[in-house]
């Protein structure tokens, strides 16, 4: 289980009276709250996180596997504190970025998945065959030895997802994984995520995908402003984001 207890993320920004130098610099900076305080127990199989750009959704996602650490409060995964037990947390919680090019680092798909398997402790002798088996599961077996740059955007995202899944995490956190994809590849990735046995926490702007979650968190201005079943949460999100429709003028008497 992932548990956030009064988790807050802050950053420093120049003070209103302007930047300074030397020892006075930190004193001249203001603390800006990016997110929180957030207190949540995340237990459902499928959790969607929605909200406007800049609302703190990605910060919340990064808290869940220790990519971002809380400035105060705690985040725990199965009792492990992300601030103290980061490596152990990241073995349990995989993370998929929006842009696969930020995640795929090897020249070919088979080498990229094999790298994940190496990090997971798979012996060298069986690594290539295991990597090819993973690629076959997602329909990329015939692309295993191609240069990554020859893959489409959707195929690269599928490769990035496969490399994460090859480490067999207990939880998968996805930060807008389909934002850069066309309709076809969005459907492919959504279907794959829907069938995973792992708990999935997905930050998304795709409200149709969010509607299939077990629970939806609405984030705005650094706060979780609604938390509940998809229908109610998405209705609250739409009401918050969309201006009310003006009433039609009355006709002549």
Automatic annotation (TrEMBL):
SUPFAM superfamilies noted in UniProt: P-loop containing nucleoside triphosphate hydrolases (SSF52540)
A single Gene Ontology MF term assigned here is: ATP hydrolysis activity
Q: Name one GO cellular component term.
A: ATP-binding cassette (ABC) transporter complex
The cross-references to PROSITE patterns, in alphabetical order and at most eight, read:
ABC_TRANSPORTER_2 (PS50893)
Q: Does the keyword Transport apply?
A: yes
Keyword field = ATP-binding, Nucleotide-binding, Transport
The ABC transporter domain, residue ranges: 19-246
Q: Member of which family?
A: Belongs to the ABC transporter superfamily.
Q: What is this protein called?
A: ABC transporter ATP-binding protein
